[in-house]
Design a protein that fits this description.
Chain lengths: 612, 350
């Protein structure tokens, strides 16, 4: 309602004017920026996110990062696996607030639309000291930012596509030096009536998917206010609702339905005096999940206080405390819980040549103090010339995951005696950069990780119950390369990445590779732009992976290609009308990410955006 | 010997060697899977990767995923039961289908892949296929609409009728024009008229009936409750209960194997949270009972190879990957260990 009013009031009065850039908003800059020396990071800026604007965070990460996203069908549950860890080993933040479900301990990336975020940052490896609970395999940071432009802006976007796809979004924004607003709303309707081969039946006949419809809508709002010369306030909220028919496995005809609704709100207050900064953060996250007739509701409130010395000579310092209050009302149990965290970060850098980060965190929850979490990282410029630089990056850190509320309280089967899952992660890598007409960057990282007390649900007769049972040893190589250059009127950009990942369950005979952990994964992209016309080609490969421990059944690897064409030359006065056409799965590959989960073949999307 | 004889004679001898008589009087070559042990691998919930493993006990050779190998497509279901009748092998998936294959080579003959919900078992009678089915879950995960589906012919096809029965029907047994249904949740055996395709009679049981078997020419059904197990004999002619043999075996898991003569191996499980599995051995006519013949965890199925007098015990290994089968002599001595597919739950000895 707020959003609707805001659009109605603001948009008609939007007037063309010259764009004036405003200063960066510095209310909630993630610790990722300053205390993550040596860690492997991936940042998606606005231009990349625009290419994925009508797709989900799961699609973005699967197709462009070393993360394996377990997709249970088109628009169905999509959960991330970093460096061979489980979906619950990924911490997910929105504007600095952890938003993983407190009952499930993970997030569904398919109901996090890319258009709802302005920046995505991905951090690899255990970083419990920096990010707390669940940052074992890595962490994903979504953030929204109010407009950087002065005056009124607005955008309307409409997408139509194959299998009945219909998506609409509306954005309105206003900015002046002391007050900025941004409001977004989106509607998605994806009937998902794609055709697939029913390989469970003789002759593998073509069938049309009839129970995989997906609908989603949401509203976001950001408000930033320079309350006083030294004080800033930023408030954001996000309401999202998704209704899904759960796509049955091939050969099955289940008719399950799921509805997810989330409300997230965060208020940041930043006060700077001389060289020190105080930050107060309050947040509220409420999730409702209805699976058929079962309804589960959880909520958490968070209050945190940070004190930071961003720059004291070569040093930077941060210390803070955070309290979280959780409440869960599920179909089989109710539970409340409080958690407290104290953390400290220390950064040191010398002339841009070397930077070191030391992070420490202590977390307490009702059962106990969990192990103290340190993390240490270093970024060392080994060599630099006019155009070339070589950096050594290395990091070591511990991570942990507290047993989820379901793990401990689910009736029947919950196990209150579970220990937290614990991890140790070390990595070392080199980054070589070249600037100039043909600029490029290459990074190669070797990582090694051990996860102990990994929680697995096991059958105890007819009841399943979780246990700390698995010990996993992961190691691998990650290569990322990107380059950009110009030939005549053409501007080129290319990127390529490859990941080798060995994830061994030490508790199994022969230390077997974990299920759904492909050893090989890679992606590549090429963009060429001439004036207002841009063509982008991308592809990704996921290697063979077993569907269970051992190699009794191996799913074949698959490679998919996408193509996009954008024309942004259509304008009328100050109204810009970029048009984008995309072909997904260009080669019409028949594939399954997870066993017997049908995925769509070639599909088309046409998007028109009106930007004021 | 001329060239023709050299060629034909081995083929002729081969045909003689591998030819078996079937009840119809027609002869067919004996297939790879006409002998040995067929191991049901139920598969894991959410993966639907049920399959069948074949064991040649004489050589110890294991063949995995025999359905997929024979048909170049996955079984794609949770394998609940394997029934050999009318020279056909029925693979029952509780995810909603019944595949019909040739017993010797597992080549597909047909299927019932529409109109079923959670099928449990199959029986043939009067030229028809009868399929017990839990029916759909309601909002509270109860199954008030259980039924026995009727399909004309033995080779699969369309469900022509659903006969309502009590909740959660399990095993079926066909005799003449009657089909006996083990109504587990309702604690009753329901007798269906296979000609009229209607319920005919109901027999109350002392516990949950789950499995029929024959002993000395009589029909028996195994029932259990939390404290005891019951072996109930039923008069096939009178369609009435004859006698009940009761044993104080608590926490039976609903799975048994028929050993020599009147010996039965009964799986037990304390369930969550203690979780202790076991096997008790009873002789139902002599009344002897050996509790905890074996103890452990992960027990998920049991079978008895009467030719070799060996007990096969399936262990699901938590459904995390391949399962395990332990083979015991009647004495209890371990005779072997096999790695099989996911969720081994039962055996068919050929």
């Amino acid at each position: 309602m707020t959003f609707a009013l805001w659009c109605v009031v603001v948009l008609p009065f939007a007037s063309p004017q010259d764009t004036v850039a405003l200063a960066e908003v510095a209310v909630h800059a993630a610790a990722l920026d300053r205390f993550a020396a040596g860690q492997t990071l991936l940042t998606y800026d606005k231009s990349t996110l625009e290419l994925y604007a009508v797709r989900s965070l799961g699609d973005l990460l699967q197709e462009t990062s070393p993360i394996f996203v377990r997709q249970y069908g088109a628009g169905m549950l999509a959960s991330p696996s970093f460096r061979g860890t489980s979906p619950g080993h990924t911490a997910l933040f929105w504007n600095g607030v952890p938003i993983n479900s407190i009952s499930l301990g993970q997030s569904d990336l398919s109901i996090l639309p890319v258009q709802a975020t302005d920046r995505v940052e991905v951090q690899f490896g255990s970083a419990g000291a920096l990010f707390g609970n669940e940052a074992i395999g890595g962490s994903v940071h979504l953030s929204t930012a109010p407009t950087k432009k002065e005056g009124l802006q607005g955008a309307f976007s409409q997408t139509i596509g194959s299998f009945g796809q219909n998506q609409t979004s509306l954005t309105a924004a206003y900015g002046n030096p002391t007050l900025r607003f941004q409001a977004k709303g989106y509607l998605q309707d994806q009937p998902n009536t794609f055709r697939y081969r029913d390989i469970s039946r003789a002759g593998a006949p073509w069938e049309r998917q009839t129970h995989a419809a997906f609908k989603q809508r949401g509203v976001l709002q950001d408000i930033w206010w320079q309350a006083a010369p030294h004080a800033q306030v930023k408030a954001s909220f996000w309401w999202n609702e998704a209704q899904r028919e759960i796509q049955p496995l091939i050969g099955s005809s289940t008719q399950d339905r799921q509805a997810d609704e989330s409300f997230r709100a965060v208020l940041d207050y930043r006060y700077q005096k001389k060289s020190s900064v105080w930050k107060l953060k309050g947040a509220w996250v409420a999730d409702k999940l209805q699976f058929n007739a079962q309804e589960n509701q959880t909520s958490q409130g968070l209050l945190g206080l940070d004190w930071e010395l961003p720059s004291a000579g070569n040093w930077a310092l941060r210390a803070g405390i955070r309290g979280t209050w959780m409440n869960a009302k599920l179909s089989t149990y109710t539970a409340t819980e409080q958690r407290w965290e104290a953390y400290q970060s220390l950064g040191w850098q010398e002339g841009g040549r070397i930077s070191v980060s030391l992070n420490l965190r202590q977390l307490a929850y009702p059962k106990d103090l969990v192990p103290f979490l340190p993390g240490l990282g270093m970024d060392w410029r080994l060599f630099e010339s006019d155009q070339t630089s070589l950096h050594l990056k290395t990091a070591f850190g511990l991570g942990l995951k507290l047993p989820t509320l379901n793990d401990r309280y689910w009736e029947p089967g919950g196990n209150p005696n579970l220990r937290p899952e614990k991890s140790q992660n070390g990595e070392v890598g080199f980054q070589l950069k070249q600037t100039g007409n043909f600029s490029w960057s290459q990074r190669l990282t070797y990582y090694r990780m051990q996860v102990d007390d990994w929680i697995i649900w096991l059958p105890k007769g007819a009841i399943w119950s979780p246990e700390n049972i698995r010990e996993v040893h992961n190691q691998g190589l990650e290569y990322q390369g990107e380059s950009s250059w110009t030939t005549g009127h053409l501007n080129w950009q290319a990127n390529i990445s490859y990941t080798y990942s060995s994830t061994r369950d030490l508790t199994q005979e022969g230390s077997q590779q974990l299920p759904y952990s492909p050893k090989h994964q890679g992606n590549a992209g090429l963009q060429v732009k001439r004036n207002d016309l841009a063509l982008d080609l991308s592809g990704f490969y996921v290697g063979p992976r077993s569907i269970a421990l051992g190699d009794s059944r191996i799913l074949e690897g698959f490679a998919l290609g996408n193509l996009g064409l954008t024309y942004s030359g259509t304008k009328w006065k100050s109204l810009q009308m970029p048009l984008r056409f995309q072909v997904l799965n260009v080669f019409n590959q028949s594939y399954q990410v997870l066993y017997l989960r049908a995925m769509p073949g070639r599909s088309y999307q046409l998007n028109l955006t009106l930007t004021l | 010997m001329n060239k023709f004889s050299k060629l034909i004679l081995p083929i002729f001898l081969g045909v003689l060697l591998f030819t078996a008589c079937d009840p119809t009087g027609e002869e067919r070559p004996q297939g790879v899977y006409d002998t040995g042990v067929l191991i049901l691998n139920e598969g894991a919930f959410g993966s639907n990767d049920g399959e069948v493993t074949h064991l040649d006990p004489s050589t110890g050779t294991l063949s995995s995923a025999v359905f997929e190998k024979a048909n170049a497509r996955p079984f794609a279901g949770l394998l609940e039961d394997l029934v050999l009748e009318e020279d056909r092998l029925y693979l029952v998936a509780n995810t909603g289908k019944v595949e019909v294959v040739q017993p010797g080579d597992f080549k597909s003959i047909g299927a019932v892949d529409k109109g079923l919900d959670q099928p449990r078992s199959v029986a043939t009678a009067r030229g028809k296929l009868f399929i017990s089915d839990y029916g759909p879950y309601d909002a509270n995960y109860n199954t008030p609409s259980s039924y026995v589906a009727v399909v004309q012919g033995f080779d699969g096809g369309v469900v022509k009728k659903k006969i309502s029965v009590s909740s959660k029907p399990e095993d079926l047994y066909a005799f003449g024009s009657y089909v006996f249904v083990a109504g587990s949740e309702g604690k009753k055996v329901e007798v269906l008229d296979a000609n009229a395709e209607l319920p005919f009679k109901t027999l109350e049981m002392p516990g949950q009936p789950v499995q029929f078997f024959e002993l000395n020419g009589d029909l028996w059904v195994f029932c259990y409750d939390a404290q005891k197990v019951y072996f109930v004999s039923i008069s096939k002619s009178g369609l009435s209960q004859k006698e009940i043999r009761t044993f104080p075996i608590a926490q039976a898991a609903g799975r048994i194997a028929q050993g020599d003569t009147d010996t039965f191996y009964v799986l037990t499980s304390s369930g969550w949270p203690d979780y202790r599995d076991g096997i008790s051995v009873v002789s139902i006519l002599s009344g002897t009972l050996v509790s905890d013949w074996k103890k452990g965890s992960g027990f998920y199925g049991i079978g008895y190879d009467s030719d070799r007098q060996q007990v096969y015990l399936a262990n699901s290994k938590g459904f995390q990957g391949n399962g395990e089968v332990l083979v015991y002599q009647k004495s209890g001595a371990e005779a072997g260990k096999l790695t099989v597919g996911r969720g081994p739950s039962g055996f068919l000895f050929r």
